[in-house]
Specification:
The complex is a heterotrimer of chains A (about 325), B (about 725) and C (about 300). Chain A has about 325 residues and is mostly helical. In chain A, about 75% of the residues lie in helices and about 0% in strands. Classes of the chains: A mainly alpha (about 325), B alpha/beta (about 725), C mainly alpha (about 300). Chains in contact: A-B, A-C, B-C. At the B-C interface, helix 2, helix 17 and helix 19 of B face helix 1, helix 8 and helix 9 of C.
């Protein structure tokens, strides 16, 4: 078992290493940090630009292999280099990760809980009114790109705010810049800002989870063991709840884990549109800013989360389902 | 449950003992409305029966006859959209129309059920103990948890699960099929029900396990005193176990009566055909089986008259006028009356006298008067004598020789984290040969390695150890093209007619695929396909249809046609009839025998059904844990089995003859076969051997340390791998 | 006509009675699935709008009407104009055409690739299997957004959008291929596959003749879902200017350009968005309906 896990972990490390290196090389060869400095006002001298680039290990006149070696030796010690303004990438990364995690944790919990409940009930009431309504709702939601949902919600929120005359629903930033107050005023301010992006993320997740749980539930509804449970004296409702739902939840929970990992990248649009300075927004900004090290670091982080999520969901699956338990 | 509550429970039901039926089903119909414009499915059409305390009723029928659906209706387990009419009375109380909550209080307490498939019948995520305890708790929530748990352990012990206290915490997938079925029976017994419905409880199990389960059901009846309804398609299983039999066909009861009346004096051609179609393990009879031609009607498209008339050899025009009622033998209306009656009039069954012999056949009186048997009314095909059998065996060329064949494969654990944890000794050194024109049967229970043997032979690759020679050519030294050419000479027919044909191909494409692969010219291919279709008894117009449009028996014929396309000399038959209903099975067995005689084929026939084997095989090899334990001439092996395992196997097969069956004593082997990943030392069978206990200590020592070799016995074509073949088994 | 009888003991609920012909049965099931019919009708309608729209409109895609900037719907500009005076109807229908093309092509490429990779990995097994699945894992962890963003400069110019199609396909085949692999492994043990092998049919023929056709229904359904995935993906990329590059025009670009005016000039945003949603919804309906109708497992779900 230990050997098996170790082999698997090694494989993950190799995959993450390749993905990160690929991202670095691609970014280092295609992005143009020189242009970033050259367009500064007032225009710096070419020597100054070169010095700046050299100090950041971004000079395109240095062979890519050399730059890569320097960067990688840093990464191996936990140093992800400096961003284009000279800040430390590693310390910023944990801050950005915190923002993203705050956003997606609540959203996934909310979205999946509602989705699971709706999906499971829809399966039990297959082809009845509730099922049809739930199916239609999730279809419509799944057909709208997150970008559009986010914008539409913003539009609605601004009209709600206008109607109420107060800024109940904020859609810019994680909190009001420069806002000061007691701790609960700060909390309230954060809540006001968090409502909309959380809602946008949760709505999309709800639709996915509802569909998924419905399918999983339908797979076990006709199972022999549900019939056995009823044969020993459980009512249909009891049998469905205790036996069918419990079994159908296993794949959903692993799906949940996986989704959570993938959402670090998936929340990009919501972050960007609502002005949250999370991982995804950071990535987009740094691509436009030709910030090679940040691009590489975010790529590393996202590869890690995807791997970790798929590994965790496997572990969870093995732990929850006695049939595959090790 | 404590003894007090048990006593109270018994007292509560004591008023119901006696001759009043516990469960009474009258005129039950179940219809599943068709969706998407499909016609309604009439699964059950007016079935009635009753059982009293301690009585066992057998409901016999083939797939689709409605036997399971009728019992599910009685349990209130059918989906909501099923339309159920008629009446189901439990202790006189009407069950149909009760809401789910009221019905749930009856289920598992007064009436309980044992289902067919123990594989998926238990919830995979709970321990078997908890599921068993739940059966107790759900009917009496006040029972303390610990007490329910103790009762569950007690029940596990009662049904013969070793180490019940520790096995309580096992999950269903850690149990073998037989053990899961025991748990299901324990669950059904948990609350001392008055009726236990057993729906094909032994169908998915091996014979030796089947014998154990039947024994256990006898115990359950004794323990609970419950009435038992035994639903099965296997006439052998019910013969020695039931008091009365109800035969179902196309959703209706077609014959009912005492078990001896039905088995020895059936008055309904369908029942007669069923009994005639079963090959018997207790009788030597080379010759054709009685086939029932045609297929059961679709429950959504039934003929107007007697549903069996299209297949019945003695049907008269009147039979197709209206459906005959289930009436006492001889009291059917005369043919003139029928001719005068309104066509398609609904039958009115005679419900009086539960034990009376009744039959739904217009000619039942005639059958009784003339004392007809299946052989009198069913035409039996002539099977020509094979030419090859004239020459003595030793002079005939060798088609296949297997020497010391070994196939070990890694045992992996875990689905998500798959890893190797050991070795499965699937085939562990076996020897046999097949001569031209003969049939060797390889028999054994699931997991004994017979399928692995087949795959090794069919692969035509060098085996891990040992030699495989096909037509005298060692597979180890074959080049790619040699191997391709050799495939022409050896083809295979599979067990499952559902999965052995590509559902996306027409019959023509399926049968022509081997020809196409081996480069037969197009024009020739077409002619050959039509010739093959005729050869296996199908129409040429079937060529353009898809497999899904055929019945199991017909699909098996397509599979045989495909295997014969390249004119092979050796045909490997992997359980070719075990997935078919008996009435269909007989036709396929006859076809195989006819083809062998006409084309001079040799067969390697793999089966677990020893009755069929006795009927078709010249020689038989019995496998256990990857080894051959006994091999020899079929007659010798069946009449004087020398290995204790062969003896147990033969003894475990139920015979479809109530008198003989009641007189027999079965050797019931203990426990399950050991895992092929962890075989015992010395003799593989010693852990379950009924003879082992009767041996002296030094003799036992020999069994434990030395592996017995296959050595000839009884001065004939018979050899056995046992240290003490001459000892009588301790039955 | 012969009947289907179940080879084993009957299931509690008898399956639907046999249909006389597979194709007819399939047709009936598809027609019976209202979602598929409605979805297909909508798609045909949208395709007509996409290909006829720019032709019937008096304006050319990209053409500017300097006399009407950011104007609401008029008889001249059926869906209004944007800030630069481009006709929204023309822009949106032209964009719809490209988006549809992108979706279809991505689906065909990625499903085809996924089917081949998955089927060979599953059938051949061993080193091939491990190698191919390792590649799939790698493709999963590669930073696809970064790659798309950095290579987006290559999307401009003649046929540049095809590069985008290839890249989108390259990042969407992995999950399907794993699913196909799993199915192949279970299919591999089917007796008709064994039969083909034992009659000497070579491995690649078995994959193409027996394995892939037997999961074609699933692949079709999956490809349909992939169409909507690709369209949504392109829209999202366009929002950041990383999708199709002008002078090509996609629905995503029109929406992105209009999103800034969502509150002030709703027509700039609403019309293209509506087109997009209806298109994706239609595709999803067809895909899901197909999956229900074609998946042999789901027939048991039908009451």
């Amino acid at each position: 078992m230990g050997k098996f896990l170790a082999r698997r972990m090694l494989n993950y490390v190799v995959l993450v290493f390749i993905a990160t290196s690929f991202a670095y090389v691609l970014a280092a060869t295609h992005l143009d940090p020189r242009a970033y400095f050259e367009q500064m006002q007032p225009p710096p001298s070419p020597e100054a630009v070169n010095d700046q680039l050299d100090s950041l290990n971004l000079n395109d006149e240095t062979p890519i292999a050399e730059r890569y070696a320097t960067w990688m030796s840093g990464v191996l010690t936990g140093d992800f280099g400096r961003n284009i303004q000279g800040g430390d990438v590693a310390s910023q990364m944990w801050m950005k990760a915190g923002v993203t995690l705050r956003l997606i944790t609540v959203a996934t919990l909310l979205g999946s809980a509602v989705g699971i409940a709706v999906g499971a009930y829809a399966a039990v009431r297959q082809y009845r009114g509730f099922d049809k309504a739930a199916t239609a709702a999730s279809f419509v939601v799944l057909s709208i790109p997150t970008v559009v949902i986010a914008i539409v919600v913003q539009v609605i929120a601004s009209s709600v705010n206008d109607g109420l005359g107060t800024q109940l629903l904020r859609y810019s930033g994680e909190y009001s810049a420069g806002f000061d107050g007691t701790w609960w005023e700060l909390l309230l301010n954060r809540l006001h800002h968090a409502m909309l992006p959380t809602f946008v993320l949760a709505v999309a997740l709800f639709a996915a989870f509802a569909r998924y749980q419905r399918n999983m539930m339908l797979d076990v509804l006709g199972a022999d063991f549900v019939r056995t449970a009823m044969a020993k004296g459980l009512t249909r409702r009891q049998a469905l709840f205790k036996h069918a739902l419990r079994t159908a939840l296993i794949p959903t929970i692993t799906y949940f884990t996986f989704t959570f990992g993938a959402l670090v990248a998936g929340a990009t649009f919501t972050e960007k549109i609502y002005g949250w300075h999370g991982m995804g927004a950071w990535l987009i900004d740094s691509i436009f800013r030709h910030d090679v090290h940040v691009v590489a670091a975010v790529s590393w982080f996202m590869a890690i989360t995807i791997m970790a999520a798929s590994f965790l969901s496997d572990l969870l699956y093995a732990w929850l389902d006695p049939r595959v338990r090790v | 449950m404590s003894t007090d509550t048990v006593a109270a429970h018994r007292a509560a039901h004591s008023g119901h003992t006696g001759d009043t039926p516990v469960l009474e089903v009258t005129d039950l119909t179940v219809t599943f409305p068709g969706t998407n414009g499909n016609p309604d499915v009439h699964a059950v059409r007016g079935v009635g029966y009753s059982v009293s305390r301690g009585e066992v009723l057998g409901i016999v029928g083939e797939s689709g006859s409605g036997k399971s659906v009728s019992s599910m209706a009685a349990m209130g387990l059918l989906p909501d959209h099923a339309r159920i009419t008629g009446s189901v009375r439990l202790h006189g109380e009407e069950l149909l129309g009760l809401d789910d909550r009221a019905m749930a209080r009856k289920r598992g307490r007064v009436i309980s059920m044992v289902f067919q498939d123990p594989l998926s019948g238990l919830t995979p995520v709970y321990t078997v103990g908890d599921q068993l305890a739940e059966a107790v708790l759900v009917h009496d929530a006040r029972t303390p948890k610990a007490q329910a748990r103790a009762r569950a352990v007690e029940l596990l012990d009662l049904v013969g699960i070793p180490n019940p206290a520790s096995r309580y915490r096992s999950f269903p997938h850690e149990f073998s099929g037989g053990m899961r079925q025991r748990v299901m029976i324990a669950m059904a017994m948990a609350n001392h029900p008055d009726v236990i419905i057993c729906d094909e409880p032994t169908t998915a199990l091996d014979v030796t396990i089947q014998a154990q389960i039947l024994d256990l059901l006898r115990t359950a009846r004794r323990e609970t005193g419950a009435a038992i309804v035994m639903i099965t398609h296997d006439l052998g299983v019910v013969a020695g176990f039931v008091d009365r039999v109800l035969v179902m066909y196309a959703g209706r009861a077609v014959e009912t009566g005492g078990v001896d009346q039905i088995y020895h004096g059936s008055r309904m051609p369908y029942t007669m055909g069923l009994l005639g179609a079963v090959p018997r393990v207790d009788a030597e009879r080379r010759g054709a089986l009685v086939p029932v031609r045609g297929n059961p009607p679709s429950p959504s498209d039934l003929p107007t008259g007697c549903t069996f008339a299209p297949r019945c050899p003695i049907a008269e025009p009147e039979c197709e006028r209206s459906e005959p009622a289930l009436l006492a033998v001889g009291s059917q209306p005369s043919r003139d009356d029928v001719r005068d009656s309104r066509p398609g009039a609904p039958p009115e069954d005679d419900t009086g006298g539960a034990g009376a012999h009744r039959s739904a056949c217009l000619r039942s009186g005639e059958i009784a008067r003339n004392r007809w048997t299946a052989l009198d009314i069913y035409p039996v095909p002539e099977i020509p004598e094979p030419a090859a059998s004239a020459a003595p065996r030793a002079d005939r060329p060798e088609m296949l020789r297997v020497t010391g064949l070994v196939k070990h494969h890694p045992l992996t654990k875990g689905t998500v984290f798959k890893r190797r944890v050991g070795t499965v000794y699937a085939v562990d050194g076996i020897d046999f040969d097949i001569r031209e024109g003969e049939t060797l049967a390889l028999v054994g229970e699931s997991g004994c390695g017979k399928s692995s043997t087949l795959m090794e032979i069919m692969g035509l690759h060098e085996p891990q150890r040992g030699r495989v020679e096909v037509m005298g050519r060692d597979t180890a030294g074959l080049s790619r093209s040699d191997r391709f050419r050799l495939r022409r000479d050896m083809q295979i027919v599979f067990q499952d007619p559902m999965s052995s044909l590509d559902p996306r191909m027409t019959v023509f494409e399926i049968i022509s695929e081997p020809l196409r692969t081996h480069g037969t010219p197009r024009a020739e291919t077409t002619a050959r396909v039509y010739e093959l279709l005729r050869l296996v008894g199908l129409d040429t117009e079937h060529a353009t249809r898809f497999p899904a449009e055929f019945s199991g028996g017909q699909r098996q014929r397509i599979g045989i046609a495909r295997a014969l396309a390249l004119e092979p000399r050796l045909l490997v038959l992997d359980e070719p009839v075990s997935a078919l209903d008996v009435s269909i099975q007989a036709g396929v067995v006859n076809l195989l025998e006819e083809l062998q005689a006409r084309l001079g084929l040799s067969y390697l026939f793999v089966a677990h059904d020893l009755s069929v084997v006795r009927h078709v095989a010249d020689r038989v090899a019995v496998m256990y844990l990857g080894r051959i334990v006994e091999i020899g001439d079929t007659e010798f092996v069946y009449t004087r089995p020398s290995h204790p395992y062969t003896q147990a196997l033969l003894s475990a097969i139920p015979i479809p003859d109530p008198e003989k069956e009641r007189a027999r004593t079965h050797i019931v082997l203990d426990a399950d076969p050991p895992s092929p990943a962890d075989p015992p030392s010395g003799c593989g069978f010693r852990t379950r051997c009924q003879k082992f206990g009767t041996l002296s200590e030094p003799e036992q020592e020999q069994c434990v340390s030395d592996e017995p070799l296959v050595t000839p016995v009884n001065r004939g074509d018979q050899a056995v791998a046992c240290h003490f073949p001459e000892r009588q088994a301790g039955v | 006509m012969s009947t289907i009888e179940e080879s084993r003991a009957p299931a509690p609920v008898p399956a639907a009675p046999p249909a006389p012909s597979r194709l007819r049965d399939l047709g009936r099931r598809l027609i019976g699935t209202r979602r598929v019919v409605v979805g297909l009708l909508l798609l045909v309608l949208l395709a007509a709008v996409a290909f006829l729209g720019p032709l019937v409109s008096p304006w050319e895609p990209g053409e500017r009407d300097f006399s009407a900037m950011l104007e609401g719907p008029t008889t001249e500009h059926w869906a209004g104009t944007n800030r630069t005076g481009q006709d929204i109807f023309t822009q949106a229908t032209a964009g719809l055409r490209k988006s549809l093309l992108i979706g279809l092509l991505v689906a065909v490429f990625s499903t085809g690739f996924a089917a081949l990779v998955g089927a060979f990995a599953g059938y051949v097994g061993g080193v091939t299997d491990r190698g191919l699945m390792w590649t799939a894992d790698l493709a999963l962890v590669l930073p696809n957004f970064v790659i798309l963003a950095i290579l987006s400069t290559h999307f401009a110019g003649d046929g540049g959008w095809l590069v985008l199609v290839v890249l989108l396909a390259a990042f969407s085949w992995m999950v399907t291929s794993k699913m196909v692999r799993g199915l192949t492994i279970s299919l591999r043990e089917r007796e008709y596959i064994h039969a083909a092998r034992f009659m000497g049919v070579p491995a690649h023929t078995i994959v193409l003749r027996h394995i892939l056709p037997n999961m074609s229904s699933l692949l079709i359904a999956d490809a349909t879902i992939m169409v909507s995935g690709a369209i949504i993906g392109e829209t999202a990329l366009s929002y950041f200017g990383l999708g199709v590059q002008s002078p090509d025009i996609s629905l995503g670009m029109v929406i992105a350009a209009g999103s800034a005016f969502a509150t002030t000039a709703p027509w700039v945003f609403a019309f293209p968005t509506l087109l997009l949603i209806v298109m994706v919804l239609a595709v999803n309906m067809v895909g899901d309906g197909l999956r229900d109708a074609l998946d042999p497992q789901s027939t048991s779900r039908r009451p």
